[in-house]
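## retry 2 of 3
previous attempt timed out at serialization; input unchanged, resubmitting
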Amino acid sequence: MKPLHAFSLLLALCLEPPARARWSARRTPDPLEATTLTTVSEIFRGPLEGRRLSVMVDVDTEKSVDIDKLLSIMDDEVYLTRTGGEGDLGPEAFESELEGNIVEGEVPYENVSRELVVAGNIIEVGTTSNWASLHFYELPGLPPDVLVTLVDDQVPWPLVTPPPWWGPSTVLIISLSFQCTAARVFQMELVERTTWVAYLCPIQVPGDQPRFSVLSWQPFDPNQKLLSLGLWEPESFSTFSQLFIDRFKSMGGHTLNVASDDDDAPLLFLDENDEFEGTCKRILDALADTFNFTFTLTHGAPDYDTCNSQFGFALPRPPPLPQWRSLVYPFTWLVWAGVGGILIFTGLVYFLLTYTQPVSPDVSLPGAFGVIMMGLVNQAPTKIPASWSLRMFLAGWWITAYIIVISYNCNLIAVLTVPVYPKRIHTLEQLAVSHYRLCMLDYGEFVPDALLESAEPMMSSLGRKMDLVPVTDEGYYGQEDCAAHVLDDRNAHIETYAYLKLTYADMELLDSVYFMKAQIYEGNLAFFYQKHTPWRRVLDRGLQRLVESGFVAHWQNDIIDRYTKAGKVERDSSPQPLALGHLQGVFFLYGLGLATACLIFLVEYRLIKRKGHRVF
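## retry succeeded, writing output
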């Protein structure tokens, strides 16, 4: 048999004689004791098989059941807690975090190792008699999650007044008295704050061995009655869920009071009708419909907090590029260079091809380039070359020029109606090397220190450029000061991404800024419960389903999109007719052409006048 650990999560071990000497004079076990040992063995090999177990008994209970036999039928490691002995310190000694509350003692059972478990750590007492030699080591795996307690007339005090830092997830109570007091058992503090609870109560069966009745209790059941699951049979309670029913599958229409803050958009805030709205509100609505409860929200809670989402950056939207340059915006500079190179190459090739013909046409180098340029402005040459080689060459060029012209015209239409902006900053690397500093409210957030202490040079560079502004009680709590720095093209505003977008929407500044897609320091959104809330796991399952199904992300994006679109200026989305400003580039090019023509005219006029020819 594997060694069994003595579990003293709450109390000290008592100094008593060894177990064999103590039980050597015992009487023959009574029928209830035999039934108890058999039932415990069936439970440990059935619904609790493979679970991490701890056993709790009071010293007076050991008069009703042989603990040595009880431990001997267990195949897996368990942890033993004994209360009521001379060395028991009682609940007052364990109200704190057990600092210095370690009491040493002999283990009264030869098949139990000498160990103490305190606040999640094991304090191993050496197998020698050197009791002053104590050292800590972590428990392999997780601590026990199922507490099995045997109760008689004397109930172990941890069930009534458990330490505030201790709370098993599952409690199985086995009564050793035919006088069951189920109502008192289910009102014990440890039972009330435990999720999974089952109570085995013995009953007399005429002409047969005693049997155990399996009872449970649903705290939110409107009928407030004990729930009998039947008599214990290994076949009827072969799984954990059959023995420990879900006591909180329905909240029975009860009201949960939720501490909240109505100024935490997009999680929770007041809409235009002064009604609660937000992602958390929608989550609570879905959970309330599923688990049958109602809830109330508060407009402010000093002890309320949430874990933040990722931190994003707002930067000033750069002004549009000058409209008089609109004629060059349809193509990038690389495409313009490519088009220019093709023109030069095609013009030279066409000029050289003319001299390979049997009858060389009268075409100069400028004339060859003129023929090639005609294809880009939808002009045909006055005379088609007679050579088929030149005709095929021009046909290929005209098709290429036709495609270039169509692409240019299509892009030009878009450029004339949609403002063109310079390249923006979209990555943290670009932000780190830019002239922008960071701006953030000085409300004790970890981000400034985390950036400074980061081992990444890029992140530490951002931290060195951080400017903190004080928090105020008016307006947007000081966020408008950072917004002013952003509009002055000096800073990038850093804050939780969703809150940042909604804040700029409220300030009607969405048209003046843009938000980087790159974000830092992701954190989970969370609901906080009172410690040892028994129905927390029920709501956790509901929250997990909402997250995995995508509802939470959908609600969050829906709220952000709705309020940010409402904060944009309407003219951005309305059709705009072409104005004179959109055609600045055309008139600029036309004026440039007139000026060039005038210059050429003057040059020709002077040259002809010098030769003595009449101009007219």
